[in-house]
Amino acid sequence: MSLALKVIPPVQFIICASLMFGLASYFPQYRFTLSLSFPIIICLIVLATIIGSLALYDFHKHKTTYHPHTPEKTSTVVDSGIYAYSRNPMYLALVLVLLALALYFTNVTCFAVIPLFIWYITHYQIKPEELMLNKLFPTDYQAYSQKVRRWL
Q: Which is the most buried residue in 3, 50, 76, 95, by most CB within 10 A?
């Protein structure tokens, strides 16, 4: 059974955040100190909030769905605004918050969760979405994916 589009990204985020908490608790010997961690954490969260808000605004402006489990309801390829820089700014925002959490927990092991999240989201969320967008908008999505990268 494929996990594609089964576990929505906010739940995947919560699972990863919980895993980070568990790793930080179970492996206290891998703690580190970073004198500027609080300002960096705040900057990452503000940046993630801006990126996520702009992404939702662009979806609203184009009157298309932002629900990650129903890509077949997409009414258009959103390729302007924040989507001119990343095809997946909402997922990018989640990665930035995970990075902020790893810094908050000040534990090196927490950083290992971030590539796992990126892999899972790419394989089980983004690629199925891309297949659907290619099916719904073959010309527009192909042109868009040629000029804008998946993450950054």
A: 95
